[in-house]
Design a protein that fits this description.
Number of strands: 0
Structural class: mainly alpha
Shape: flat
Distance between the termini: 35 Å
Largest sheet: none
Order of helices and strands: HHH
Low-confidence stretches: none
Number of helices: 3
Oligomer: single chain
Strand content: under 5%
Length: 65
């Protein structure tokens, strides 16, 4: 279940680049989630770290630092 959540977050972050529709991000998140689960705990850490870094950068940009 955690792998699916991480896959969803990664897909959402990747879809935010172009700003069009959510279907592409959902599909990509599904594929990435499968790949991350196959990598085991390391994949979940990498995917979670990617999503957390993007969220941190977005928050930092919003604050103006």
């Amino acid at each position: 279940m955690i792998g699916r959540i991480v896959g969803m977050l990664v897909g959402r972050e990747l879809d935010r680049r172009d700003g069009s529709g959510g279907v592409k991000g959902a599909a990509f998140g599904y594929m990435v989630g499968g790949a991350l689960r196959r990598m085991g705990p390391l994949g979940l850490v990498l995917g979670g770290g990617y999503a957390a870094k993007k969220a941190y950068d977005r928050r930092k940009a919003r604050r103006g630092y």
